[in-house]
Design goal:
single chain; Phosphoribosyl-aminoimidazole Synthetase, Chain A, domain 2; 2 domains; globular
Length: 330
């Protein structure tokens, strides 16, 4: 599985005490390294209850490499940490298979990791996952380009595949309070079970983001994870500017609309907790939006204009216009 992820710069085999990577062979002249670490959170409990393991491996890679690429960095290599009370080879191999699949999609090599069996810390087949990704970006290509972002730039979104790997403690709490089971048909899509719908893996945006960045079409990216637009967009904006979002333009998936109604979650809280159908944000000058759309179409993706950058004299850096549209729209 790991061998299937090899790429220029990653030529050594597993089994040593550390993984080697050759930046020169990867084609960099004056690189900065970017490192990220993340996990899958309590989505692992949904996977364990559903006895589905490969999708959370993809989630693990996605949560790391999507953070890397917003810096303008290309993911180069990945390591995983898998801890369990009692190692089950079938579930472990399923997880590693998912990790390898995520690495192939992201273009990074799986060069090592750690498997720890700790029966005194985890009960039975309980397990936890962490991931570590390292990427590189040329020194003069680091994002966000704060000096270039100006009022009038457009906020462009790329669709999510679902809840990704955020908010599952709340999701599980609401499902339990309503006596809903993962094995039953999903109320919003009876063709699949509720567990299958919740375990759709996080989208990996590396190809899309790198293509836009290498074409010089973006000023910043923001990975929309926990905290939604409200907490993640301000991380890439300079002081004095804010993102003004047209809530009616957000493609709220049926699954999230159903869940918001089921849990009586206010539209603003939905926007603060979940991605609401958008997993990655790009800030693009209005003159480059058509080119960005064309570049994404070549990857069978699309760009959704969600709003624009505006000036602000407050500390509020994300403003929703008609946030109730997140609940009211059918």
């Amino acid at each position: 599985m790991a061998a299937s992820t090899k790429r220029p710069g990653a030529d050594t085999d597993l089994g040593s005490f550390g993984g080697l990577f050759d930046l020169k062979k990867a084609g960099y002249r004056d690189p900065l390294l970017v490192a990220c670490t993340d996990g899958v959170g309590t989505k692992l409990l949904v996977a364990a209850a559903s006895q589905v393991y490969d999708t959370v491996g993809i989630d693990l890679v996605a949560m790391c490499v999507n953070d890397l690429v917003v810096q303008g960095a290309e993911p180069l290599f990945f390591l995983d940490y898998f801890a369990t009370g009692c190692l089950d080879l079938d579930s472990a191999s399923g997880i590693i298979d998912g990790i390898a699949g995520g690495c192939r999609e992201a273009g990074c090599a799986l060069i090592g990791g750690e498997t720890a069996e700790m029966p005194d810390l985890y009960v039975g087949n309980e397990y936890d996952l962490s991931g570590f990704a390292v990427g590189a970006v040329e020194r003069d290509r680091v994002l966000p380009n704060l000096t270039a972002i100006t009022a009038g730039d457009l906020i462009v979104g790329l669709r999510s595949s679902g809840f990704h790997a955020n908010g599952y403690s709340l999701i599980r709490k609401v499902l339990s309070s309503k006596n809903l089971f993962l094995s039953q048909p999903a109320p919003f899509d009876p063709k699949v079970s509720l567990g299958q719908a919740l375990l759709v893996p996080t989208r990996i945006y590396v190809k899309q983001c790198l293509k836009l960045h290498r074409a010089g079409l973006v000023k910043a990216f923001a990975h929309i994870t926990g905290g939604g637009f409200i907490e993640n967009i301000p991380r890439v904006l300079p002081q004095g500017l804010a993102g003004e979002i047209e809530a009616k333009s957000i493609p709220l998936p049926n699954m999230m609309k159903w869940f918001g109604e089921l849990g009586s979650i206010s539209p603003l809280e939905m926007a603060r907790t979940f991605n609401c159908g958008i997993g990655m944000i790009a800030i693009v000058s209005e003159s480059n939006v058509a080119k960005a759309r064309k570049a994404l179409e070549e990857l069978d993706d699309d760009a959704i204009v969600l709003g624009r950058i505006v000036t602000t004299d407050t500390n509020e850096q994300v403003v929703y216009k008609d946030v109730d549209a997140l609940r009211a729209r059918k």
